[in-house]
Amino acid sequence: MSIIDEQQIDAILVTGGRADASHVREVLAKALRLKGLEMAEVAVLMSVSDPELMGELFTAARQVKENIYGRRLVLFAPLYVSNLCHNECLYCAFRARNKAVKRRALTQAEIAQEVQLLVGLGHKRVLLVAGESYPQEGFKYVLKAIETVYSVRSSQGEIRRVNANVAPLTLDEFKQLKASKIGTYQVFQETYHHATYQAVHLGGKKRDYDWRVTAPDRAMTAGIDDVGIGVLFGLCDWRFEVLALMQHIRHLEQHFGIGPHTISVPRLEPAAGSDMASHPPKPVSDVDFRKLVAILRLAVPYTGIIMSTRENPNLRRETFALGVSQISAGSRTNPGGYAEGEKEDKSQFSLGDHRPLDEVIRDVASLGYIPSFCTACYRLGRTGENFMDLAKPGEIKLFCDPNALSTFEEYLRDYASPETRQAGAKLIADTLADMPGPQRQLAEKLLTQVRAGKHDVCC
Ligand code: SAM
Ligand code: SF4
Fold first, then answer.
1. Distance (Å, rounded) from C-alpha 347 to C-alpha 80?
2. Which of 78, 87, 411, 453 has the fewest CB atoms nearer than 10 Å to its CB?
């Protein structure tokens, strides 16, 4: 049976649109018990438009996020290594026939240089990104790039977790990716709607819907526990996509005992040489976008939600409260972008948030969230089922907040500007004052070690 059942989705969309206030409140009450939601319940929440109920939906999402993850926001930077691509995705600047983009695959030395710059800014996690075509050595290029990222050592630090967003691989390639010590493997279906998928993917291997939708299965079969999925919002009705995401998640849970580690929610942004990117066929309004983030938080409470710099600072800020747990900052989407700056004629799409990392961190801290550079779970083996066993009962935050504080303190000492240091010191003091006893003791123990000059302190 296919992973995505469009008839079921269409049927639920028809019946779910008629929910009354008491039914919506019942669904919200269930979500607050952290058990997640069924597709029909998700459809009920998608039908909400009354401002009072919308407010209750947003409050519930915030409560679930804080219950499971605490107040931390994990930071990462994308690392675009190549914009070569054989595919013809109509929304993307890297598509093969696009003459508006100058092609470039970084050499390993250039990748190392980019990593030096990211480390120098304070980053500890990168998301390696590439188009679907590699220089002569083929897929080995990606493996070498990961090795290069981990090998860079600077007096200021190192990258401690490499995630990757690269085209679907074979089982054997996924095994090699796993052996390269990958953190999360990400692949977005873009649209789960078969007809739309065919209409926007005109050439190359990516035309094969099934090959892509089954990529998470192959990754998990190969032993990669943390897999990230996502939708490129703007291609098809967002309500359809959210229900399809639910089907995909249930499929992974049924077959592997765990769902995806993260969900990404990119919206189409303008891209050089792409008319579709500037005129999305089914644009998602800001109101609907906030709503869909909140609904996902309630529906799959234990799954991380990633917000990239495609969105502008204001919208990003609002979604932190609605359930986002990871954000990128100071990003470039052109290969070589950290050394050379943003270059439209090499970038994948335009950014909505151009602020440097230090400024984003200061902003996040002043809003009361703890910027976190934690990579503990992955390195201590808390991945896949082990992670979910802690995340599901809401126990993961016992580690998350202390680790967020210790890695944030490390950032403040090693990299931050004086203003950010000041905002950060206040946030750390306020957070400690609010923590329950045992968690505070743990956090204070870690902070003492960092303040004594120790690096990479976590529990
Ligand atoms: N090439 C690989 C693939 O397509 O799976 C991996 C990397 S691709 C560069 C990363 C993601 O960028 C895509 O999966 C798509 O969701 C997103 N993307 C492409 N064009 C975009 C645009 N114009 N605006 C926003 N996101 C876009
Ligand atoms: Fe290539 Fe990925 Fe862009 Fe499609 S989205 S054109 S596969 S880089």
1. 9
2. 453
The beta strand positions in 288-424, using DSSP E, are 304-307, 326-328, 370-372
Whether the per-residue pLDDT at 1 is higher than 60: the answer is no
**Three-state SS at 139:** coil
Of 94, 197, 232, 276, the one to substitute when testing ligand 2's pocket (max ligand atoms within 8 A of C-beta) is 94
Given a cut of 90, whether residue 378 has pLDDT beyond it is: no
Give 238 Cα–ligand 2 centroid separation in angstroms: 21
Q: Do the beta carbons of residue 130 and residue 94 sit within 8 Å?
A: no
What pLDDT digit, counting tens, does each position of 36-66 carry?
999 999 999 999 999 999 999 999 999 999 8
- Residue whose entry in the numeric block shows the structure tokens 């692949």: 187
pLDDT tens by residue, 128-163:
999 999 999 999 999 999 999 999 998 879 999 999
- What is the pTM assigned to this prediction? 0.95
SS3 74: strand
**Taking the chain, what is the end-to-end CA distance rounded to the nearest angstrom?**
42
416 phi and psi, to 5 degrees? -75, 155
Work out the pLDDT band at 14, boundaries 50, 70, 90: confident
Going by DSSP bridges, is the β-strand pair 304-307/262-264 parallel, antiparallel, or unpaired? parallel
228 Cα to the center of ligand 2, angstroms: 17
Q: With a 6 A CB cut-off, is 310 part of the ligand 1 pocket?
A: yes
Is residue 201 helix, strand or coil? strand
> Three-state SS for 77?
strand
Ligand 2: lining residues by beta carbon, under 6 Å: 85, 87, 89, 92, 94-95, 131-132, 167, 206
- Helices vs strands, H then E, count in the chain: 21, 9
The secondary structure of residue 68, as a DSSP letter, is H
DSSP-derived letter for residue 158 is: -
Cα–Cα distances in Å, from 249 out to 47, 216, 224, 228, 229? 21, 10, 16, 10, 9
206 secondary structure, DSSP code: G
Query: d(Cα 319, Cα 312) in Å, to the nearest integer?
Result: 11
**Is the C-beta atom of 306 inside 6 A of ligand 1?**
no
